Every structure is written in C-alpha cells, then in structure tokens.
Fold this sequence. Notes:
It is built from ten helices and nine strands. The relative contact order is 0.11. It starts with a helix and ends with a helix. The strands form two sheets. Strands 4-5-3-6-7-8-9 form a seven-stranded mixed beta sheet, sandwiched between helices. It is α/β, with parallel strands linked by helices.
Amino acid sequence: MVDQKYIDYLKSPEWQRKRTERLRMDGYKCAMCGFPRALTVHHINYNNIYHEDVANDLITLCKKCHEKIEDEKRSVGKEHHNVYLAGKIDKHDWRGAFINYRSASLWEPDVKPVDWFLAKRVAINESATMTGPYFISCDHGCYHGEGTHGVQCEWNCLGADHNHMLFRDQVEYISRKQIDAADVVLAYINDPTCYGTLAEIGYARARNKYIIVVYASDELRESMWFVGEMANLVYEKSKGLLGHDNGTREEQKRPSTRWCNTLVRRLI
C-alpha cells in the first residue's frame, strides 16, 4: 500500500475526517495498551480501502503496538484463520488484547439481534478474524455479571437496551454457530467458574475445531488439566507454549505453530 494514490489519500480531508473519528472513538488512546501519545490510526485490513468502515476497519495504536502488529503481519505471511475467543466475559474484558471490543459490541438498531450476532465479523489482524462472542457494551458493567454472557442485563440499569437483550436459548444457539464458523477456538482460562467456556471447548472438540488453551496461572492449569487434554496447543501465561498436538486429526484446518504463537502473544 505505497502507491501514489494511497499516499495522496492519506493527505485528503476524507482520511483526516475518518482518522479523527477513530481517534475520538478510542478516546485518543491506544486501543491495545491505553497509551495516550505517539498515536497512529492503523488499517486492520484493506478490504474496504478508500471506503473504510471506521468502526471495523480502523484502530488507534501507539507506536510500540503498531510495530508489534506489523511484526505479526511479517511473521505469519498470508496464512489466515477464523477464531472464536472462548472465555469469561467481563466488564474489562481480556479480548481487548485482540480487538477494540467497544466498537465490536454495538449493533445496527434496525437489525435483529440474533442476525447481527451471527453476521458480525471483526478482523484481529490480517491473518485472523474473530467470529465471536460479541456482547453489549455498558460502562456500568450491568451486562457483564455472572450468567449474563455479556448480553443479558442482571439488574435494572437505566442505560439498558431491553429491546436488544437475548434469551438464553438464543445465546447458546449463537455461540454454537459462531464456533461452527471458526477454524480455531482460543480459550483463555482465567477463572475456575468459566462453566460456559468448558461447554464451548467440548462442543468445539466434537466439531473437530483446532483448540488452543491458554491458562492464566499454574494453579489453574493444575486444577483444570482436563481442559488442556482436549486442546491441540496449551500455553501458560507466564511460561509460554507447554505442549501441542493432543488429538490432532487430519481433517482439521490446522494453523501453523507460528500463526498460533503470534496470536497468543497478545495474551502472554
């Protein structure tokens, strides 16, 4: 993307408007680490070049994180996989290491919630696209309590959009379909009560998905060892890659270890 047309585009009022809008959307901070200086607006992908969707095609990055993203692109080349990010959904969600989860949690008001969740795709980088789960963004955290899966309000919040809340059978259906759309399921085990995550991993295994498990601690790895036995790759946050290729089957759309290491590096 270094031709003269692209260079001229970056100097245009249209690009400056989009750049300012993305900066404002991210609060004039890096969307990955929160650093407020040395910012650039980065193309997550070039699928809509010159006609970017500001919410989904662009992201604000500091210099350090921008260099990290560019290193990822050089590392994995043209390999691409769809990824489902399984794990607990919290107010300050760990998926922020992969996507700008605020822009990825807002739907168009005229689209039915189930349809929106099934169709939604957000690029993590040029080598990975997130199929789910997506959730409702709320600064109060009322959508992110126990058993809400990020889409059900646990208490009467004045900011709650009750027209877009989902029933539990819909949540379960959407999660299965999002896993079906993925080649890889990355599960982050950071809480012993991640009961829904265990079900997602079991379903992914039955659907022959490539499973990556990342443990947040050695204690969780020891107490939840059964999960790791179902995975193809196992990492621990403080130690990196621990084991690989447990139960790999030939028909899996298998990512390279380099691709997996590049993806997991955002967490560890």
